[in-house]
Amino acid sequence: MSEAALVLEGIEKGYNRGKPSEVIVLRGATLSVARGEVVALVAPSGAGKSTLLHIAGLLDTPDRGRVVHGGREMGGLSDRTRTEARRAEVGFIYQFHHLLPEFSALENIVLPQLANGVAQREAEARGRDLLGRVGVAARADHRPAALSGGEQQRVAFCRALANAPKLLLADEPTGNLDPATSEQVFSALMELVRETGLSALIATHNLELAARMDRVVRLDQGRVV
């Protein structure tokens, strides 16, 4: 277990427990991601992949089961400790970029670092370096509205990696893009992940993209198969 970046063991999660409207989303889901491994999580819409990612990223807690990051048990931690662990160790990318519209591309990457105690100059240097790695350095001073969809998502990648997390979680990161842009953005993401040696769990419905990752797992009826 110490060799894994992430271990999810017997994860169960439901909503409206004990009520007629009860919905069971995860039924003993078990999954591990090795250090430096990129795993594709394939599932149809509504199968629970977002819930699984939120639990893996400490945004939600399971009803039962264990969440382990780098050999460290996450269950039973205080909300404050979970928040600190999430900020320091986990990066998130969503289908929609969720960039702050009033700030430039660079500022969107700098702000998470400032919140984590990084000095302004250092944060800006890292931000520009990340933007350069995904080919949008020239757009650093543009606000999200002035960027294309593909450029916005690349900036979102950089923001997710701003604090040098150990684990990247992505929920349909190219699902809102046309096929050509999706290919460009996915290639940029994979190059960035490989360069930084990240472990990553990437949910996608695109089987061609999934096949280019190290391993593909499927979420079916609340279990990982």
Automatic annotation (TrEMBL):
ABC transporter domain: residues covered: 6-225
SUPFAM superfamilies referenced in this protein's UniProt entry, alphabetically: P-loop containing nucleoside triphosphate hydrolases
GO MF annotations for this entry?
ATP binding
* Superkingdom: Bacteria
UniProt xrefs under PROSITE patterns:
ABC_TRANSPORTER_1, ABC_TRANSPORTER_2
What InterPro entries does its record include? AAA+_ATPase, ABC_transporter-like_ATP-bd, ABC_transporter-like_CS, ABC_transpr_LolD-like, MacB-like_ATP-bd, P-loop_NTPase
**Family annotation (Pfam families):** ABC_tran
* Protein's UniProt keywords contain Electron transport: no
CDD domains per the record? ABC_MJ0796_LolCDE_FtsE (cd03255)
Q: What are the entry keywords? A: ATP-binding, Nucleotide-binding, Transport
In the record, the note on similarity to other proteins reads:
Belongs to the ABC transporter superfamily.
- PANTHER family on file: IMPORT ATP-BINDING PROTEIN, LIPOPROTEIN-RELEASING SYSTEM ATP-BINDING PROTEIN LOLD
| Protein's recorded name | ABC transporter ATP-binding protein
Q: Which organism is it from?
A: Paragemmobacter amnigenus
